[in-house]
Amino acid sequence: MKFLSLFTRLGLVALGFxxxxxxxxxxxWEKEATTAPTTSGLASxxxxxxxxxxxxxxxxxxxxxxxxxxxxxxxxxENLLWEFGGEEE
Length: 89
Hints:
Strand content: under 5%
Number of helices: 5
Largest sheet: none
Shape: elongated
Order of helices and strands: HHHHH
């Protein structure tokens, strides 16, 4: 398990270095933008190009919220009896 954690951390560090190298490259910043970004262009991009990714992200967030609600629930006997109005036998 420690090996997997170490491997993951090294992979993330390597990914960070690669991203910084790509963003800082001269060829990325040489060209001027041909058009200014618009709100309708952003909406079109999110719905057409990123629709599946947004749906998967929404599913993951919903699963995380359901898991958090399950973990927060207090199921001790006195709390269950108080919640449902029963008496201990």
